[in-house]
Design goal:
- The protein has 250 residues and is α+β, with helices and mostly antiparallel strands.
- The protein has two domains: 129 residues, Sandwich (Jelly Rolls); 101 residues, Homeodomain-like (Arc Repressor Mutant, subunit A).
- Helices cover 42% and strands 20% of the residues.
- The chain is built from ten helices and nine strands.
- The protein has a five-stranded antiparallel beta sheet, covered by helices on one side. Strands 2-7-4-5 form a four-stranded antiparallel beta sheet, with no helix packed on it.
- Strand 4 and strand 5 form a beta hairpin.
- It is globular and about 50 Å long.
């Protein structure tokens, strides 16, 4: 990845996924994703009603899981974006894209997306093509210092009150700045990051709960039910079964 993109892009990836997989549960990360699918479109499941989101998608930061149809194979190139990227690449606050999938042509000219998909499909180095696309759209949009400070503190487990207090700004001002850069409010972001830390541990659940700031194991289980739609034990069983077939988010 080029140095100019590094402040705004956490990860670039190319993958061939799906095909006979049925339904996949995608857990919240607190990050925004930009994905270009070269074959089958993204189909998100909402209740019993599938929603065809399209081939070029912005997956906003979210604080709950969603499910997608993986029955049809599709190649895709994408980026997990850092806070501030929505403003840097698209000129809009991340809060306007949060909690949903947005067709990219809602915010980028359709002809630009069509040209990108054609070039990606024909290229033997799709990541380089995608990287060039992002670099061409990049505008200067430095992350506000208070937001950067709050991200560091919340990412390491600090409370929202402590993170806000360190900035010297009012709670209302911090929430507005943070939401525009991240997409989620500080409280929701901190909750998702705590959940993500708990996901990576194989320790007994009671120990995981205490180590990650939950009141007790019951609190951890309630958070899992709301954010993942399943229990921690069920997640561990599913993760073990699918460890070799994990896919990037849309």
């Amino acid at each position: 990845m080029t140095p100019e993109l590094a402040p705004y892009v956490d990860q670039l990836w190319f993958a061939s996924s799906g095909g006979g997989g049925g339904i996949e549960r995608v857990l919240p990360t607190g990050a925004m994703h930009l994905v270009i699918r070269l074959d089958a479109p993204l189909v998100v499941l909402a209740g019993d009603t599938p929603s065809n989101v399209g081939h070029a998608i912005l997956g906003g930061a979210r604080a709950s899981f969603y499910e997608r149809d993986t029955a049809t194979a599709s190649r895709a190139v994408g980026a997990m974006l850092r806070p501030g990227a929505a403003q840097a690449f698209l000129g809009i606050p991340a809060s306007e894209l949060a909690h949903r999938h947005t067709p990219l042509d809602d915010v980028v000219p359709s002809r630009e997306i069509a040209s990108l998909r054609d070039e990606l499909a024909a290229s033997t180095s799709p990541l380089r093509v995608f990287e060039r696309f992002l670099a061409q759209r990049l505008r200067s949009a430095a992350l506000a210092a208070p937001v950067a400070e709050m991200l560091d503190m919340l990412g390491s487990g600090s409370t929202v009150a402590a993170a806000v207090g360190r900035t010297g700004f009012s709670h209302r001002a911090c929430v507005a700045m943070f939401g525009a850069a991240v997409g989620l409010g500080p409280k929701a972001y901190a909750r998702v990051r705590r959940f993500q830390r708990a996901l990576t541990s194989s320790e007994p659940l009671a120990r995981v709960a205490i180590a990650n700031g939950y009141a007790d194991q019951a609190h951890l289980c309630r958070d899992f039910a709301e954010l993942a739609g399943i229990s921690p034990s069920a997640h561990r069983r599913l993760a073990l079964a699918s460890r070799s077939t994990s896919r990037p988010s849309a």
